[in-house]
Design a protein that fits this description.
Length: 130
C-alpha cells in the first residue's frame, strides 16, 4: 500500500509540473523588438484555452501568400472584452498588430484586432494605449 501511495504521489507531481510548464512566458516566445502589422483573410479560429488562436493568410511585398498563426488571450478574457466565437470568422478580412516570434516563424502575439471593411477595433490589449 505504501508503494502505491508513493507511486500516486510521484505521478501527481509529474502531471502537475507538466501543466505548470505548458503555459509560457510572453518574453520567451515573442520579441517586442519585432512588431508585426498583418492584414489578411481569416482561415480558421481556435477558440481554446489557455490561448485563442487566429490563423490567417497575408501577402508579402512580392505578393507571395504567407500563413500566420496569431495568439490571443484566453477565451474568458476575450469574452469579457466583448468578443465571441462569432466576432470574426473564416473569410473575414482583418488587421492584427502585435509582436512576432523570437524564432522568426510566422507566429505572433496579438495586441489589437480590427475588421478591415468597417474599421471597427474588435479587441485591443489594455496595455497598448495605457
Amino acid at each position: 500500500m505504501r508503494n502505491f501511495f508513493l507511486l500516486c504521489t510521484i505521478l501527481a507531481s509529474l502531471l502537475w509540473s507538466a501543466t505548470a510548464l505548458s503555459h509560457h512566458s510572453f518574453s520567451l516566445e515573442f520579441d517586442v523588438s519585432r512588431p508585426v502589422d498583418l492584414t489578411g483573410t481569416v482561415i480558421n479560429i481556435e477558440w481554446t484555452n489557455p490561448h485563442a488562436w487566429v490563423f490567417l493568410e497575408t501577402e508579402d511585398e512580392q505578393g507571395v501568400v504567407q500563413a500566420w498563426a496569431v495568439e490571443f488571450l484566453g477565451v474568458l478574457s476575450l469574452m469579457r472584452a466583448g468578443m465571441s466565437p462569432d466576432t470574426v470568422g473564416p473569410g473575414d478580412l482583418i488587421n492584427i498588430t502585435g509582436f512576432g516570434s523570437r524564432d522568426g516563424t510566422n507566429t505572433a502575439n496579438a495586441s489589437s484586432l480590427t475588421k478591415v471593411e468597417t474599421g471597427e477595433v474588435l479587441w485591443e490589449s489594455r496595455g497598448r494605449n495605457n
